[in-house]
Amino acid sequence: MVFRVTFVCTGNICRSPMAEHIVRRWLADEGLDVEVDSSGTHGWHAGNPADRRTVAALRRAGYTSAHAARQFRPVWFNRYDLIIALDRGHHRDLRSMARTDLEREKIRLLREFDPSADSLDVPDPYYGDRADFERVRMQIEAAIPGLIAAIRTQQPSAASK
């Protein structure tokens, strides 16, 4: 069975699609069989592509960027092994959607996986500039080694055969 991870931010056009594309590539480079996607706690941008600045930041760093925004649905808790919130507000929103302790246990903050993080929140770059989007990219990349280690621990069979 494939291990499944989703990233969740507010509108699913900045942070979570950036995390999706970055983490997908790093997991593939590690040879891990993990499905990765993303969504938002709100559906304001459903169907829209990622913010153009997210796309630009991803492309500058050599990542893919194809995306259509969608809203996280509580019935999806059963689809995922790990649900990664990009900030504490998303974490709180997701926990309020969860119906059981098992569903709540799947929810983590991305920066929990970065031992050098100065905050658990990945700040929203939407009202910022290019530097803010680059900062978000770097924060996501800094958390990936810890996230990969956690995935290996949670699902040893996630490693490729």
User: In angstroms, what separates the terminal alpha carbons?
Assistant: 12 Å
Architecture per CATH nomenclature, i.e. the level-2 architecture? 3-Layer(aba) Sandwich
Oligomer: single chain
Number of separate structural domains: 1
Give the ordered list of helices and strands.
Answer: EHEHEHHEH
The main β sheet shows up as:
4 strands, parallel
Beta strand %? 5-15%
Helix fraction, binned, reads: 25-40%
Radius of gyration: 14 Å
Number of contiguous helices: 5
Mean pLDDT: 95
| CATH homologous superfamily heading | Response regulator
EC number: 3.1.3.48
Protein name: protein-tyrosine-phosphatase
Family: Belongs to the low molecular weight phosphotyrosine protein phosphatase family.
InterPro entries: LMW_PTPase, Ptyr_pPase, Ptyr_pPase_sf, Tyr_phospatase_low_mol_wt
Description:
With 161 residues, the chain is α/β, with parallel strands linked by helices. The chain has one domain (3-158): Rossmann fold (3-Layer(aba) Sandwich), CATH 3.40.50. The protein has five helices and four strands; from the N terminus they run βαβαβααβα. The protein has a four-stranded parallel β-sheet. Strand 1 (3-9), helix 1 (15-29) and strand 2 form a beta-alpha-beta unit. Helix 2 (52-60) crosses helix 5. The longest helix is centred in the last third of the chain and has 25 residues, at 130-154. The model has no long low-confidence stretch (mean pLDDT 95). This is protein-tyrosine-phosphatase.
